[in-house]
Amino acid sequence: MVSEKQVPFYQVDAFTDVPFRGNPAAICFMPTRLSDELYLSIAREMNLSETAFVEEISDGCFNLRWFTPTREVPLCGHATLATGHTIFEHREYDGDRVEFLTMAGSLYAERVPEGVRLDFPENKPFPVEPAREALEALGVSNWEDISYSDTNQKLLVLLSSEEEVREVRPDFKALLGADNPLGWRGVVVTASGSGRYDFVSRYFAPLMGIDEDPVTGSAHTVLAPYWGEVLGKTKMWAYQASVRGGVLFVELIDGRVFLTGGCVTVIEGNLFY
Predict the structure, then answer these.
(1) CA 155 vs CA 35, 151, 188: distances in Å
(2) What does residue 114 show for φ and ψ, rounded to 5 degrees?
(3) Each residue of 14-49: pLDDT tens digit?
(4) How far is the C-alpha of 156 from the C-alpha of 145, rounded, in Å?
(5) Angstrom distance (rounded) from CA 211 to CA 55
(6) What digits encode the pLDDT tens for the residues 218-239?
(7) For the residues of 53-102, what is the DSSP string, one character each?
(8) Active-site residue, 50 included
(9) What is the pTM of this model?
(10) What is the DSSP letter of 14?
(11) Which of 166, 87, 154, 116 is nearest to 14 (CA)?
């Protein structure tokens, strides 16, 4: 039996120029005012870090919601990048800029030669006392700085080298149960980069149902202002050093973070529900 309800569906690898790298997102073009239970069921079926639900409101304006397999999230960069790519490449949209109405307010995606450029709010972190249980769960002892973004609920841990970032092996069960008075939803480990990259990072979010996210646009709304201040730069290249890996170009302009990355569509079809 096939359900009579169907909508266009795409799977897109974001922050990459080649398939099967970057961060995969599912993009479903369907009403965004249906039940949360339905969206969660679809997100569990997709079993990706985020599934985006998109509804066209007017020409160039869309409602956008994001779900992990366990809950709705207030901001997701890679799925927004993937949604912009899908609209520009597959939905017969002739414009070069779209607006997304989201839990995080109005977000914008622009078609550029390098892929898609996102316009996101800046989420500056500030120094905090060490989160001992979280650091123990990460297996990190030689950290150099601890910061927190209360506007994006991310704990940022500065390490001394790119190699240390790559070698982090968290105990996710311990991280999930760590004392969390700040209310962080995820933990970023970061260090200065090498070669073309100004900084590198990894992102862990077991509280959101994602042990390690391959490439995290929202984390870079915290990382960009942090490293911008450290390096004295407003334009930087970043690499998220997960197994899949992903590349971002970040810019700081008037309290906003602009994230540019490539996308590759790997699946196109219909979702029946």
Answers:
(1) 31, 11, 6
(2) -85, -5
(3) 999 999 999 999 999 999 999 999 999 999 999 999
(4) 8
(5) 29
(6) 999 999 999 999 999 999 999 9
(7) EEEEEETTEEEEEEE-SS-EES--HHHHHHHHHHHHHHS----SEEEEEE
(8) yes
(9) 0.94
(10) E
(11) 116
Neighbours of 181 (CB within 10 A): 8
7's tokens: 């909508």
**And the tokens for 171?**
């105990």
Alpha helices in the chain (DSSP H): 36-46, 77-90, 132-138, 162-167, 172-176, 220-231
Q: Which of 4, 50, 89, 163 is catalytic?
A: 50
Q: Which two tokens stand for residue 43?
A: 């997100």
- Helix, strand, coil share (%) of the chain residues, nearest 5: 20, 40, 35
State the residue for tokens 């639900």. 53
Q: Domains plus CATH for the chain?
A: 6-122+260-272 (3.10.310.10), 126-254 (3.10.310.10)
Report residue 59 as tokens: 């020409």
Q: Which class for 68: exposed (0-12), middle (13-18), buried (19 or more C-beta within 10 A)?
A: buried
